[in-house]
Design a protein that fits this description.
CATH superfamily: Alpha/Beta hydrolase fold, catalytic domain
CATH topology: Rossmann fold
CATH class: Alpha Beta
Structural class: alpha/beta
Shape: globular
Number of helices: 7
């Protein structure tokens, strides 16, 4: 199995729960990639797609995509453009459209303020799991709920998780690991 973990705006692959999840999956024999995207300097969809070119070869029916914050919108674009479907996508605190926060709306614009080909995206991924927090200080829960609805995703609301980042105490994310293992289990109806 292969996992590609995408960080968000102002983020990096060595932050929050990403190193822990990478280690947990690798212990189970997974191949895990954690690309580093330009942010906030040079953050735009074109530049992120350029970085992702190196990892595109790993997309396929044995691959899961995991994204935090802005990264779910980027994953939607990856799935929209892909010629190979992924097994599953796990979208944490994701959104499309403006979140009405001037600190982020301008640098997120090329990722989230566009028309998405929802049917193409859904045809390129067999399963979506969306995580939201009831007290996210950046992404309104309504935005994450709308994303889940658009994707016919399993929606998981976590109480008191903030933005699922280090500030909220998210150095580990056992619930995410549990869902990944369930979805990718050979006995799972979708795997």
């Amino acid at each position: 199995m292969i996992a590609i973990i995408f960080h968000g705006a102002y983020g990096a692959p060595h932050e929050h729960w990403v190193p822990w999840l990478k280690k947990e999956l690798e212990k189970r024999g997974w191949q895990v990639f954690t690309p580093k995207f330009p942010t906030p300097e040079g953050q735009n969809l074109k530049n992120w797609l350029k970085v992702f070119e190196e990892f595109e070869q790993y997309l396929g029916p044995e691959t899961i995509l995991i994204g935090h914050s802005l990264a779910p919108a980027f994953i939607l674009t990856v799935l929209e453009k892909s010629k190979k479907p992924a097994l599953a996508s796990f979208l944490i605190a994701g959104f499309t459209g403006k979140i009405n926060d001037p600190r982020f709306d301008s640098i997120n614009e090329t990722f989230v303020e566009r028309k998405f080909a929802w049917e193409k995206i859904k045809s390129n991924c067999r399963n979506f799991v969306v995580f939201a927090s009831d007290n996210d200080p950046y992404v309104p829960g309504q935005k994450t709920g709308e994303l889940a609805d658009r994707l016919d995703a399993e929606f998981i609301l976590v109480r008191g998780a903030g933005h699922f980042n280090s500030k909220a105490g998210y150095f580990r994310f056992p619930l995410l690991l549990e869902k990944i293992l369930i979805v990718t289990s050979p006995s799972s109806p979708i795997s």
